[in-house]
Structures are given as structure tokens and as C-alpha cells.
């Protein structure tokens, strides 16, 4: 859930299961943006990632989907607030696979007995004050005019200046200095060859603020080429042979293309303008913008990778691509302007550069013969490179990953030993520390006494049994020689049936019907109770068991679940209808967003029902009224509000088909009291839900919050 922000994702049917890699994609992009090759997740989209205040992962140790639905009523806040719910595909070692084996977060004991980790030692506010970027530009975000070079800075860095002795014969772009924060940016880059005259331009590229290439031209130098510098320039003798464009042609074209308030962006742009023999008053030089101490400069290739997550100037390519370089410089300037100096300083580029160099050394250490043991020790200190973890990246970039959890839960890979810590203490620490961190993992647990394997097996059986009861209805009484075919046909109009059997223990015949979907069973109770079926006025009811006494409450809560907002269930469809047919039939319904046609998970065939999701809740209400009693292709439709999201009905199907007793049902069950341990467990879960509520309410707006039920495997 993104608090007061936008995250869009598919919510119906088969899209409701995601893999650990997809979750990793989401967390990595949310935490790092475009840095470190992070990209938008393939399965959902975060809008305005740069506006995210932070990422919080709540890790419910060894709890699974089983716990969520067993204690569905107790998880009141969790299910009402978190709008996006997905089944996570099982993983052999969930924390390790998600956070990487190379995680360098070493938990430290605190006086309260908590396990907590924060990279405050890496970057503190006081450290930021010493950063060259903060010293030069301050902490506040500013417009682009604050980052253009002054006349003095241009002189100091060998830029061509109007009237200076070395610029005789240079052409002015004739742009004025009346730039504003909304002036257009243009990326410029040139490739040069060494001639008898010196460095002469042989290729020019210009891109606009959207990265579109406006100019990419080869240029014939005036003097004889002494060295083509093909390795860097990509220019060969063969490439220049047919070229007729001269420097004067390029100068004329650039003058025409650049508006009067244009701001040129480039990396060490002075050398490009010197080679072009042109003077331009408004420039942003990314080699100076990303300031370093003692006059040093970052290379464009490093900045592109560290800041933008882009690989440029690859060794496989022949020379540099000036369009690629111009675009990279432009995007770097845009990133700096949009994010501001503080965000850029928090990237901790110096540490990233050091880490990159050490990694290169580490990769080559097999062929190197280092002298002295100091170097060997340094190599031993290097973090593992085989499985990079984005929490490592966060530490290196100066962001503050935070880890809080109960100790003694070694199997999680997150915590160390001390059983005295409570969830309440963890919450208290989280309320204090999470606002200071960009990425937080908060681990809660029910405690080892509630996570024993025999208790887990008991929970599984209770959930399976209750779901089976909710999917099952009894109908009757019927006449002695009633027509089973008529009964089946009538009840199938409510949805797909898993099994239908005759109850022989009663004086008059009854039928026991087990549906595949909760909506189908509920429709049967609502539509057919008191109806005349196969010549008899029948009663339709669910089994009477201790577990079913709160069934109506549970049905109502499922109907109000945020995942079911604007979603309706439609039954009675002919199986011959395709998804395209249904799209046409329902096309007149207002605000229809998605149509999902469930399939049999074994045969792959379509069922005789579908789900419709509407953009507005009122449109779903109107559609319900329109569809009920509606005849489609000779078949009368029945409809109601959805009860079970896609991940739930798929899970129900798997539970039923993994159990050999499907289709059989015991009508009477021994009425036994809940055990003390389960009563305690309900209280624990309710308290846990309140902790999540308090934590969520304390988060800043635009915080991505993910709650994980990782299970035991």
C-alpha cells in the first residue's frame, strides 16, 4: 500500500500470484529509483517514485496466507487498509532469496533487547554538511539557473569567452543570458580526432530536453588527421572519406537550432565548445555539477551507472556514442535539478566509486600478485559479489536501512538471540526510528510457542474444513423420485459445482452440493432458499457446525473487503461464450474496467461464471441491478457482489484438490470449545493487527508499505 500515492497493479484472477523476483523488483525500484540498474517492476507501476518518502516492509515471521484467513476477522485493519493483496510463490529460504546472501547489515544488541540496524554510521546529517555538493549548492532544491556556470567559473575552467585572446574567430551562438528556471536544456557532445592543427571536431550530437536527437553529424576536419583515436572517438578514415560537412556548416546549424535562452549541458563541455570554436553564455557542466573535493571530477560513465543506472561507453562498442553521452549528461543534470543537492549527496558517490574500484580489484585478484599482507586483508574485507543485495546498495548510497525484530528467530536470517523482546517494544522503537530511515524492515512474531509445526497443521485442517463448509450447501427435502438432472441444472446457474451427492440419512431426500466458489454457494442460499425446484419447495442452508456460527459475519466482511470494491460476480453463463463474446455483451455497462473469466485449473476450460470490475463502486451497484434476471443467449443470469479475490479462490481450489476427502462431508460435528491456545492466538493476532495499524498511521505520506506473510517455506 502506498500511503497517499499511486501504485497500480493487476488485481483479478491469475495475476494475483507474484514471485519473489517480482517483489524484489518492486522493493528495489521503490528504494533506489533509477540507480543501480533498478527499473519499473514488470507487473505493476509506481508513479512519481522520486516522491516516495520511504519504504517499510513488515515481516510477520513464519505466518502465512493460512494465518491471514484463519484470523481474517482479527486482521481488521490490515484487510481494510491494504488494497493490493497477492499470493507470493513459495521460496526455499525467503529472507535470503529476497535480501541476498551478501547482506552486510549486522544486527547490534540494544539496551531494550531489540535487534536493530541503521546505517547512521555511514551518513549522518553532519557528514552531509561536509559533502562538496552541499558546500557548493546548499541543501535546498533550486532551479536550473542556480547550476549554470558563472562567468568567473567559465574563465577558470577554460570555457571560450567573448573577447578573450584565445577565442579570436570563434562564432557566438548569439543566445543571451536572459535564462530562467524554465529555459530549455540541450545536451551536447562532440568527438574529436588529432590533426596537424590539434584537436578538431569530427562528430557532433545535440539532444533536446526529452532526449530526442536533433543533430548527429560527421564533420570533415580542415587539417590532415594524425590520429583518429578510434578507440574513443569511434571515427575511422573510411567514415570520413565521403563527408563534406565542415565546421562552419555545423556552427550555422547550431545557431539556428538553439533558442535565445537555451542552456547547453555536457560533461567537460569546455572541450566540446573549444573544438566547435563557439561561444555560449549559459552552460551546465556535469563534471563540475557533481562536485568532488580537491578539484577531482567523476567520469561520465561512472555517473551514468551510479545515478541513472545506465551503462554507457561499453567496451564492446567501437568508441563512444556522442548522442548517448549527450543524453546521459542531460539526464544527469535533470536528475540533479529535480532531486536537489541533498538527495544527490545522499547517493554517497565517493563511497560508490571506492566500492566499484575494490570490486574490480576483487574480480581480478586471481591474476594479480599483490605485495604485502595489507592488500590481502583488504580483499578479505570486501563484501561478497556473487549475489548483490539492494540493501547493500542502500548502505553504499548513504541511505539508512533499518532493521528491527525479535531476537531468537534465527531461521529468518534477520535477527539474533534474546527472547525477552516483545512486539510492543519493537513497535515503540519503530515509531521512533522509521521516520528517520529510507528503508525499514520491521519483524513481528507471534512467538515460537504459537508457530510449532503441530499447531500449524491443526490450523491448516481447521481452515480447510471451514472453507469446505462455506462452499457447501444442503437443499431439500425433495420428492422420493425427484429428477437429479433438474436439480443440478438449477443449482449450476449459481456457479461451478465441484460435487453433488444425495443425503440418504434423512427421512426425505436432500442433496449436498459443494461449489468451487464462495459466491456460487452464497447465491444458492440467497436465490434458491424457499424456491420451487424439481417440483418441491425446498430449504437451502449451509452445514450447522461450531465453526459456521459466525459464517454470516465472515461473508459480510468478505463482501466489504477493499479488494472486492467495485467487483461483481455473474453466474449462469453458457460455457460456449468466449471472453470476446462477454466483452461485447457487457460493453454497455458504465465504467467497466476488467472482465475475468475463471478457468478450471486442471482442464484449463472456462467456467460458467465471470467477475466484472468497475472503476466506480456505484457503477457496480447499477450493473448488479441490470444483470440480475437478465437473459443472455437463452440463459438467465444471476449476480451478486464478489466475496473472494482471485488469490483466495485459487488457494481454496488447491486446498480442496490436495485433500482426498473432497466431495464428502460430515453434517454434524462435535461441538467442542476452542482450545486455550487458540483463544490466546486470536488475542495475539488482534494485538498484532493493532500494532500494524499504529505503525501505518505513523508513516509519512507517500511511503510504500509492504506486509509479508512468508510462511515456513
Molecular structure report:
The chain is 36% helix and 18% strand. With 713 residues, it is α/β, with parallel strands linked by helices. It has a domain at 142-339: Ribonuclease H-like superfamily/Ribonuclease H (Nucleotidyltransferase, domain 5, 2-Layer Sandwich). The protein has a six-stranded mixed beta sheet with strand order 6-7-16-17-4-30, sandwiched between helices. Strands 9, 10, 11, 12, 13 and 15 form a six-stranded mixed beta sheet that branches. Helix 19 runs parallel beside helix 27. The two termini are 24 Å apart. 38% of the residues are buried. The model is unreliable at 10-14, 100-124, 365-388, 408-420 and 660-674 (pLDDT under 50). Residues 105-124 are annotated as: Disordered. Pfam families: RNase_T, RRM_1. GO terms for molecular function: exonuclease activity; RNA binding. This is REXO5 exonuclease.
Tags for this model:
alpha/beta; six-stranded mixed beta sheet; Ribonucl_H
Task: Tell me the total number of β-strands.
Answer: 30
Number of helices: 27
Radius of gyration: 33 Å
Low-confidence stretches: 10-14, 100-124, 365-388, 408-420, 660-674
Spatially, the strands of the biggest sheet line up as 6-7-16-17-4-30
- Terminal-residue CA separation: 24 Å
CATH class of one domain: Alpha Beta
The fraction of residues assigned to DSSP E strands is 15-25%
What's the CATH topology label of one domain? Nucleotidyltransferase, domain 5
Most strands sheet: 6 strands, mixed
